[in-house]
Design goal:
By secondary structure, this protein is of the alpha+beta class. The protein has two helices and three strands. It has helices at about 1-15, 25-45; strands at about 50, 55-60, 65-70. Strands 1-2-3 form a three-stranded antiparallel beta sheet. Strand 1 (about 50) and strand 2 (about 55-60) form a beta hairpin. Helix 1 packs antiparallel against helix 2. The longest helix has 24 residues, at about 25-45. The protein is elongated. It starts with a helix and ends in a 6-residue tail after the last strand.
């Protein structure tokens, strides 16, 4: 996600060096910010806890629901 957020600056540097057209940095800024914004929203939803008890916690991730047995966690 950081690469998407930094891509407009990389395209701007390439445009300054005359490797890319100037419009490429504007396009990268628009597309990169949209994709990074949607990915950030999805990551925020990923952190929501579905169920929590004294011994188990279940959360939603991008790959489905995941459960952790808290009694098996060690230092």
């Amino acid at each position: 996600m950081a690469l998407l957020l930094l891509s407009p600056f990389g395209a701007w540097l390439l445009a300054l060096a005359d490797y890319l057209p100037t419009e490429a940095s504007v396009l990268c800024a628009f597309v990169g910010s949209l994709v990074a914004g949607f990915a950030l929203l999805e990551q925020c939803q990923e952190m929501r806890v579905i169920r929590c008890s004294m011994t188990h916690i279940t959360a939603r991730t991008w790959t489905g629901q995941r459960s952790v047995d808290l009694t098996r966690i060690r230092d």
